[in-house]
Each structure stands twice: as structure tokens, then as C-alpha cells.
Write a structure and sequence with these properties.
Blueprint lengths: L12 E8 L12 E5 H6 L8 E3 L11 H8 L21 H15 L3 H4 L10 H10 L8 E9 L2 H17 L4 E5 L8 H9 L3 E4 L13 H14 L7 E2 L8 H7 L5 E2 L30 E6 L8 H16 L3 E3 L2 H6 L4
Parallel strand pairs: 1-3, 4-5, 4-9, 4-10, 5-6, 7-8
Antiparallel strand pairs: 1-2
Helix pairs in contact: 2-5, 6-7, 6-10, 8-9
Length: 341
């Protein structure tokens, strides 16, 4: 077997299905497709063009930083989305019109996932987690996977539905959720926000005005918005931030450190919106060693999840998690503050 350097550039990635593993901590990856650097595959003797990878008998290469490189390869949406380029905030467009446009675009892209989901793959890509476990030899498995219930609250109607419809369902199974609230786009109902916190739920900050422009502004204006958004919800001790439409840049995340304990803006696999081929290919917090975190994101407005059929599905999901011993409820702030070893 050829030697590999201590550090390897990610370079071109190849998708392979894991058909055999060398240790028990990798058993979770059996049958999954993983993206790995073509140079790494060549270094362990994988045939050129192979679509399957059997690691039995293969010694892990001694590489530093490859998992980190995969996490940040597509972590930022540095290209300004169309919604932020128009001369007015896209929130002025009626919700029904926005939903119609999104459905049309979604239908067109549905059959082209191979183009907009090269890496991370859609709907789930755990390549960075596989590399981390393979190269480190860390023990796998935990008693229960943390499950986070989160909501993006974009409107007064969404906040009202959160308190009246969603929180009772969560509380009935002993769960609590984290809601990221847009702070400067509509008049906040502090009575409802206080009620949510009093019932044991958390409030986070959801951008500034949901125009998707904040990440692309100059640093001074971006930090002014972050400070203003936090100040609007300061009474609820917001520990976390989630960018509207999950639009984020490295500059935004660098600034967030001065205002929040954690960010919840980078998905494992981002899908085609706001820009294709985005995500971190990991289910684990970047700075907190974890064996995996499941995050459910809903919007409480009626046109999204705040309607009877979707609420029924939400109730079924809550009951499923509650009845599954391998899953446990947790709040987002605790994930940020806990070392999952």
C-alpha cells in the first residue's frame, strides 16, 4: 500500500458506497454513499472508477484535517441569492406568490439532483463524519441521539401558531423547542414570547428582517444588524442564531461569535436553495464532539406546517421520537454547551 501524506487536499471528490468496514464504530456507514477525495482512494488502492469501497483489511491513512476540510468545503453560501438582489425585500411579495414560485422551481430541479447536489449529496450526506470516525478510530455509539425541535418564526401569525398549536403538542410528550424569531420585520408580541419561555422553550434570533442581505453587507453594517437583532430579543436571553433562508458567509459566522454562543445556519445537505451544492456533510456540531444530532426545522405559518394535515404529521413525529429509546429530546443551547463524548 502506498503511503499518504499527513495532510491531503480535498480536491476532486468521488462518490463510493461503503460495502465493508474495518471496525465496529464504522458499522453505521455500511450501505451508505460517501464522498472521498480521488487521491485518497488511489492511495489505498481503490480501482479507478470504482463505485464501491470495502475497507476490511485496509489500514486507515494517517491524515490530519481531512474531516475539517470536508465540513467547510461547501459550508458557506458566498454567492448572493436572487432574493437578496432585487431592489426591495422579497418579503413584500405575497406569501402565496412566493410559494407558487418556489414550487415551480422545485419541480424543475427535482430530476436534476445530480447537478445541484454533487456535494453534499441530497437528502443526507455524512462524508465528514465517516472520515472523522475512520481516521480517528473513535469509539462509536451513544445511548441516545439528541433530537432538537426548532422553528423559524417569520411572522406574527407564525408566532401565534407556535404558542397555540405547536407548543402543546411538544409539551404533551415532554419535549421543548427552540424558536428563531425574526427581530426587526414585524411588531413582536412579547406576551407570546414570554409565555413560550415561561413554559420552558427557548428563543433564538433569526437574522434581522429576513431580506437575506445581512451576510453580504459590509462588516460594520452587518455587526450593527446583529447587535440590533439581539437587542430586540435580549429579554429572552437568545443563545443562538439562525440565518434566514440559511444564507451564510464566513464573515457572518466570524461576527456571530461576539453576539451568540452558537449558530444553526449550516445544514448537513442544503438542497437547491438558496444556492446549490451547500452544506457541511456532518450531523455533528463543529466545536462540540458529538455522535450525531437530529434537527427538525418547521415554519409555523399555516401555508407551511400550521395546518391540520401537517400538525397531524408533526404529532406523529413527536410520538415516534418519544417512543424510541435511541432518541432523546434536547434544547439547542444545551448542545452548544455540552461536550458529547
Amino acid at each position: 500500500m502506498r503511503e499518504t501524506p499527513s495532510r491531503m487536499a480535498v480536491g476532486d471528490l468521488r462518490r463510493v458506497r461503503i460495502t465493508g468496514v474495518s471496525s465496529p464504530q464504522l458499522a453505521w456507514a455500511l450501505g451508505r454513499e460517501i464522498s472521498l477525495p480521488a487521491s485518497l482512494l488511489a492511495s489505498i488502492g481503490a480501482p479507478a472508477g470504482a463505485s464501491e469501497l470495502d475497507l476490511r483489511g485496509v489500514e486507515p491513512p494517517h491524515l490530519n484535517g481531512l474531516a475539517d476540510d470536508l465540513r467547510v468545503r461547501a459550508a458557506f453560501t458566498d454567492r448572493t441569492p436572487h432574493s437578496a438582489r432585487i431592489p426591495f425585500t422579497y418579503q413584500y411579495v405575497p406569501p402565496r406568490v412566493r410559494s407558487f414560485i418556489a414550487r415551480q422551481i422545485g419541480r424543475r430541479l427535482r430530476t436534476r439532483a445530480g447537478q445541484w447536489a454533487r456535494f453534499p449529496s441530497w437528502p443526507l450526506d455524512l462524508s465528514a463524519d465517516f472520515v472523522a470516525d475512520w481516521l480517528s478510530g473513535a469509539a462509536g455509539g451513544v445511548d441516545a441521539v439528541p433530537v432538537l425541535l426548532t422553528h423559524d418564526i417569520d411572522s406574527a401569525g407564525g408566532l401565534r401558531n407556535l404558542v397555540e398549536l405547536f407548543l402543546p403538542l411538544e409539551e404533551a410528550v415532554g419535549a421543548r423547542s427552540t424558536s428563531y424569531v425574526v427581530p426587526r420585520a414585524w411588531k413582536l408580541d412579547h406576551g407570546l414570547l414570554r409565555e413560550a419561555v415561561a413554559r420552558g422553550h427557548e428563543i433564538g434570533v433569526h437574522g434581522y428582517d429576513h431580506s437575506n442581505r445581512t451576510p453580504f453587507l459590509d462588516r460594520a453594517e452587518r455587526r450593527r444588524r446583529l447587535a440590533s437583532g439581539r437587542a430586540a430579543l435580549e429579554a429572552y436571553s437568545p443563545a443562538g442564531y439562525r440565518a434566514p433562508s440559511l444564507v451564510r458567509t464566513s464573515g457572518l459566522l466570524a461576527d456571530l461569535a461576539d453576539y451568540f454562543e452558537y449558530d444553526s445556519s449550516i445544514p448537513t445537505s442544503g438542497g437547491p436553495f438558496p444556492t446549490p451544492n451547500n452544506g457541511c456533510a456532518t450531523a455533528r456540531p463543529f466545536r462540540t464532539a458529538a455522535r450525531g444530532v437530529a434537527v427538525l426545522l418547521t415554519h409555523c405559518e399555516r401555508r407551511f406546517s400550521g395546518n391540520p394535515p401537517m400538525l397531524s404529521a408533526y404529532r406523529e413525529f413527536l410520538e415516534f421520537v418519544t417512543a424510541t429509546p435511541q432518541l432523546t429530546w434536547i434544547l439547542a443551547s444545551r448542545v452548544a454547551r455540552t461536550a458529547w463524548t
